[in-house]
Amino acid sequence: MENLSDGEDINRPWENIKKNIKISATESLGLQELKQHKSWFDGCLGFLDQGKQAIMHWLQDPSQSNVDNLNNVRREASRHFRNNAKEYLKAKIEELETNNKIKNIRDLYRGIANFKNGYQPRTIIVEDEKGDFVTDSHSILARRRKYSPSC
Q: What's the pLDDT tens digit per position in 11-36?
């Protein structure tokens, strides 16, 4: 850093330092890939579109053939969703079993907790100046900016 002349960019040495730190951290600690959450209903969008189209046809022309078509589409979609949910649960159970076999206790108990607790939506509620509760993200951000020391 001391060897830099006035015309050189100071960001280049910092980029080199940053790159070297990342390389040494990867070599010593290893690189851990983040797990991508894949829901069981990701591949079901086609069935949802078919259902919407069948409903629209039935609303435009409530004939018996459109009613039968709507019922068939609903039945197929329900069967597909049910099978996908079963496959997803089987895969999660197999993942828990392998975590147990390889003594990966942290992931095992994390997976068990996910099964027990299920999906828990997160709600952020902030009180505004008047004492009312605010849940709108823009209002919460504005409220936090007001009291943030860096802004």
A: 788 888 889 888 888 887 777 666 66
Rounded distance, CA 91 to CA 87, Å?
6
Q: How far apart are CA 56 and CA 59, in angstroms?
A: 5
List, as one string, the DSSP characters of 34-68: PPPP--TTGGGHHHHHHHHHHHHHHHH---HHHHH
pLDDT tens digit sequence for 82-110: 998 898 889 888 989 998 899 888 888 98
- Buried b / exposed e over 118-141, threshold 16 CB at 10 Å, is eeeeeeeeeeeeeeeebeeeeeee
Q: Between helices 64-101 and 45-60, what is the axis angle to 10°?
A: 160
Asked if 140 and 124 count as a contact pair (C-beta separation under 8 A), the reply is yes
Match 């975590």 to its residue by tokens. 99
d(CA 77, CA 22) in angstroms, rounded, equals 47
What is the Cα–Cα distance from 29 to 12, expressed in whole angstroms? 25
Q: Is the pTM of this model over 0.70?
A: no
Contacts of 7 by beta carbon, 8 Å cutoff, 6+ apart: none
